[in-house]
Design goal:
The complex is a heterodimer of chains A (251) and B (393).
Chain A: E1 2-6, E2 9-11, E3 33-35, H1 37-53, E4 57-64, H2 69-78, E5 82-87, H3 94-108, E6 112-116, H4 127-135, E7 139-148, E8 154-161, E9 164-171, E10 174-178, H5 190-196, E11 201-205, H6 237-246
Parallel strand pairs in A: 1-4, 1-6, 4-5, 5-11, 6-10, 7-10
Antiparallel strand pairs in A: 2-3, 7-8, 8-9
Chain B: H1 13-40, H2 45-54, H3 72-83, H4 87-107, H5 110-122, E1 127-130, E2 146-150, E3 153-164, E4 176-183, E5 186-193, E6 199-204, E7 216-227, E8 231-232, H6 238-274, E9 276-277, E10 280-281, H7 286-311, H8 321-346, H9 357-366, H10 374-387
Parallel strand pairs in B: 1-4
Antiparallel strand pairs in B: 2-3, 3-7, 4-5, 5-8, 6-7, 9-10
Helix pairs in contact in B: 1-3, 3-4, 3-6, 4-5, 4-6, 6-7, 6-8, 6-9, 7-8, 8-9, 8-10
The chains are: A alpha/beta (251), B alpha+beta (393).
Bound molecules: flavin-adenine dinucleotide.
Chain lengths: 251, 393
């Protein structure tokens, strides 16, 4: 099976994020970047599918500047076969991403597109759904387990939904987005790291894909979440209720 | 002049990826067990085998022999990252991957590699290297262990002392050792397996000040029968093997030192910004600033010398002794001092195991002794420099 896996470069969740004083974005100096953790889960799943099926191809795709090469190389070191980088310096909204991916899917004709359910920087949770709509392919979001029929023509996915698990079946090709519990991504092994350099990262200028990526959304302002203030301890339930009423004004 | 865009600590993409793999692995798997294994003086064998899964145990073994095919600088990165969390465990790694695997692989023939490499690269077998004896350490050429050839076998007699990975616990001998001994034509080395007749665990050494997550043992060879096929190279070749391997050993011990120091700088800097006294964070006090700043500057100086040495090191050739000794000399003393500074900055809490630096402080001391004492380096450097004044500037 040929699987396309999307990879986004995002700030390391371990780093402290600071918003620029003018609210136009975050301070990007000296922050470390990583593969979006949900995309890392998608890479792992694609590799497991390939290993289980004893063949196939795992192709990584990313859209961004040259610096994304670092994350793609990490994915290749984990074991992906090759990568495509759509060179694009401008910020993109989910629809633009989905449109660019549509073009790539048309070129690559994979049986499966695996994506993170969301990127941990913008938390939009839309690109997968939009891509499915544009391609008119089935979609299974928030996957926590994926199985394929023996003929590899259909899949069964367990989805994590509010209040429980939902199992759905559908024909391939399809889009699946990953949830946290799907798997635990592997480390890039040392032999994997040494092999990664020889793997291809094909660069495509964004203009060559001929998609309309005019932004539909603009970021008006970013603001840090309000600082947590120290809590208060009260002696009795009644005192708590009083404060919730008079001070917090929530009851 | 063209600008040089070199990240000395991660000169290639592979080095960057390696550091990331090891650091991520250390954070989730090594750090959580470090204090417990230190307290209990136990070696974490399952964790060690996970290093095999990652390809760390054969880090410097060429890919054609099933290794990871990385260089000396990569070995430095691996030791630095492991040691930032658990120097004791890292010492067991060093004894296996550098003292046994790297040494063996460079000096073995095709048949020997075929017989042993898989088992030590995967971590199924734990290896070590036997040089030191109860009555000779620094004066290694005075070793008494002797192998006498009779027909297709050598009969090895002697005792080896302070052997890391010599035991896996109180009663279990390690799996495989590279043993130096006198032979008719000079110093030779042999691969000795657990189970060879006449080879036994003398005693596991308890109560070390630090490095307690690695097992240290005295090993006994009593008419130990070693097939001729287990001699590495020709008789008398192994003085060269030993000298060559001491270089990577010293450089990776220096990397353990920068690992310890980097962690200590991190711990003391954070603590000093959070702890308050007399109404202000303690990092507002000049004396505390001096600990932090001096530690960082000394750490960076040693680290720069370390990577400078590693980047030029060719694992196939001796010839870096002056700097492998030099960097071990400065880096180990630096690590001990920086760990001490960190403990001072943390005050009473620094003296408690939970705050990490107490363990690193105990571990750091060993680095001034093992793999060559400070005095041995001073002796070597003076000798080498006197011969090669041109190296000075
Ligand atoms: C935890 C631990 C793990 C170890 N692991 C291993 C291992 O895996 N394999 C192995 O083979 N060995 C191992 N060693 C042994 C270590 O390499 C030796 O302890 C070290 O080389 C010093 O030898 P020694 O202890 O016999 O001290 P000695 O050589 O007796 O030295 C005692 C003192 O005299 C000084 N001295 C000696 N000669 C001179 C000189 N010419 N000029 C000036 N001063 C001198 C020394 O510097 C030192 O201060 C380990 C040791 C420890 C503690």
């Amino acid at each position: 099976m040929k699987t396309l896996v999307t990879v986004k470069r995002v700030p390391d969740p371990e780093t402290t994020i600071r918003v620029k004083p003018d609210g136009s974005g975050i301070v990007t100096d000296n922050i470390k970047y990583v593969i979006n953790p949900f995309d890392e889960i998608a890479i792992e799943e694609a590799l497991r599918i390939k290993e289980k099926q004893g063949g196939g191809e795992v192709v990584l795709v990313s859209i961004g500047g040259k610096s994304v090469t670092e994350q793609l190389r990490t994915g290749l070191a984990m074991g992906a076969d090759r990568a495509i980088l759509v060179l694009c310096e401008q910020p993109l909204d989910s629809l633009a991403v989905a449109k660019l991916l549509t073009k790539l899917v048309e070129k690559e004709t994979p049986e499966l597109v695996l994506m993170g359910k969301q990127a941990i920087d913008d938390d939009s949770n839309q690109a997968g759904q939009m891509l499915a709509a544009l391609l008119e392919w089935p979609q299974a979001t928030f996957a926590s387990k994926i199985d394929f029929a023996a003929d590899q023509k259909s899949a069964t996915v367990i989805r994590e939904v509010d209040g429980g698990l939902e199992t759905i079946g559908f024909a391939l090709p399809a889009i699946i987005t990953t949830d946290l519990r799907l798997n635990e991504p592997r480390y890039a092994s040392l032999p994997g790291i040494m092999k990664a350099r020889k793997k291809e990262i094909k660069e495509i200028p964004v203009a060559d894909l001929g998609a309309d990526i005019t932004p539909r959304l603009t970021v008006v302002k970013m603001a840090p979440p309000p600082k947590k203030e120290a809590g208060k301890k009260v002696e009795t339930v009644q005192a708590l209720l009083d404060l919730l009423h008079t001070e917090a004004k929530v009851i | 002049m063209p600008t040089v865009n070199l990240d000395l600590f991660n000169p290639t993409e592979e080095h960057t990826l390696l550091r990331k793999t090891v650091r991520d692995f250390v954070r989730t798997h090594v750090e959580p067990q470090a204090l417990e294994y230190d307290r209990q003086e136990r070696f974490n064998l399952p964790l060690f085998r996970q290093l095999g899964d990652l390809g760390l145990l054969g880090i410097t073994v060429p890919a054609e022999y099933g290794g990871s095919g990385m260089d000396a600088l990569a070995a430095v990165i691996a030791h630095e990252e492991l040691s930032a969390s658990d120097p004791g465990f890292c010492l067991a790694y060093l004894a296996h991957a550098m003292l046994f695997v790297n040494n063996f692989c460079h000096n073995a023939n095709a048949d020997q590699r075929q017989r042993y490499l898989d088992k030590v690269i995967s971590g199924e077998w734990v290896g070590g290297m036997c040089m030191t004896e109860p009555s000779v350490g620094t004066d290694v050429l005075g070793m008494k262990s002797e192998a006498i050839r009779r027909g297709d076998y050598y009969y090895l007699n002697g005792r080896k002392m302070f052997i890391t990975n010599g035991a896996l616990d109180d009663a279990t001998l390690g799996n495989i050792f590279l043993v130096y001994a006198r032979t008719e034509k000079g110093i030779s080395s042999f691969v000795v397996e657990k189970g060879f007749s006449g080879f036994s665990l003398g005693q596991r050494l308890h109560g070390k000040a630090g490095m307690r997550a690695s097992m240290t043992a005295e090993l006994v060879f009593d008419d130990c029968v070693v097939p001729v096929e287990n001699r590495l190279g020709e008789e008398g070749d192994s003085l060269l093997h030993m000298m060559r391997n001491l270089e990577i050993e010293r450089v990776t011990i220096a990397a353990m030192s920068t690992g310890i120091a980097g962690r200590c700088v991190e711990v003391m800097t954070r603590y000093a910004s959070e702890r308050t006294a007399f109404g202000q964070p303690i990092n507002a006090f000049g004396q505390i600033q001096r600990y932090i700043a001096d530690s960082y500057a000394q750490y960076m100086a040693a680290r720069t010398y370390l990577y400078y040495t590693a980047v030029r090191m060719d694992l196939n050739k001796p010839g870096q002794r002056i700097d492998s000794d030099g960097v071990k000399l400065v880096a180990t003393m630096m690590a001990k001092q920086v760990a001490d500074n960190a403990m001072q900055v943390l005050g009473g809490y620094g003296y408690l195991g939970e705050y990490v630096v107490e363990r690193l402080w105990r571990d750091a001391k060993l680095l001034e002794i093992g793999g060559g004492t400070l005095e041995a380096h001073q002796k070597n450097i003076t000798k080498d420099l006197t011969r090669r004044m041109d190296l000075i500037r």
